[in-house]
Amino acid sequence: MAEVCPISVVISTLDRPDALAACLEGVLAQAPAPFEVVVVDQSAGPATRELVERTAGGPTELVYVKHRGRGLGASQNTAVAVARGDIVAVIDDDCVPGGGWLRALRRAFAEGEDRVLVAGRVLPLGPARPGLYPVSSRTSTRPASFAGRVAPWHVGSGNNFAVRRSAFLAVDGCDERLGPGSPGRGGVDMDLFYRLLRAGGRASYDPAAVVYHEQKPLDERLARRPLYGYGTGACFALWARQRDAAAPWLLIRWMGWRGARLALAAVRGNWTLAREESLMLASTIAGLGYGLSAPARPPGHLHAPPSES
Length: 309
Prior knowledge:
The protein is built from nine helices and twelve strands. It is an alpha/beta fold. It folds into two domains: about 5-215, Alpha-Beta Complex (Spore Coat Polysaccharide Biosynthesis Protein SpsA, Chain A), CATH 3.90.550.10; about 220-295. The strands form two sheets. Strands 1, 2, 3, 4, 5, 6, 8, 9, 10 and 12 form a ten-stranded mixed β-sheet that branches. The protein has a two-stranded antiparallel sheet with strand order 7-11. Helix 2 (about 45-55) links the parallel strand 2 and strand 3 (about 60-65).
């Protein structure tokens, strides 16, 4: 079993200091503790910086970076460029890790040097409450391994994954044309996962690595569907522009899967799910247009992030 190097935890945040406080509490309570925690802040006000300053001072180093850009992809590129751990664990600012989160990630990476990506379960945070719904959940309890040009949406979710820093840098990190806050709106995690696997690495899904995601009102859950679909559609087009022969096959699989879910929802009279899948399908088609017309990705941006500590 390979030795696992220290883990840096990175958190991108935008105007959610209360949620970030709960996230940081859970991360800092991990045993063994992370090597460091890097918080990249795109907020307009000082609340996040003040929170990090109040929380600092324990055995785990807290690194605060004020990022003047916008977009999750740019924020995560900045975070990984700043991080010093050989393994970088990514969690969203509105998530709280389970008690054994980092321990499970460490164990998964120790299983082999060719494992470049590990993702885990995402469960609702807190008990069920009227008017609130799970968002971006991933509930499977079955471990899985992945290699090659597989459908990346089966690998994991962008709010709970860890990556070897060397592998992240080798594929030039996140595509900043994708993801929340960018013209691509979503899909930055799917694109990163796919390019890591396409480059020859192996990935795994470990259900023991659990994070809990804040539940949201129904209108906010529905509002995220077209963003995710648009970004995923953009991914297919960008991969096709890279002359990836698997891109059309992946698009067909995605549309077939979503279409089947829509049909099943209609048969069962689940009109909320039917609406979600309709939004996903329509936005995927719109995202294809963006991906085909998006400007070329600028080289070397990962190594010179527009940020200040």
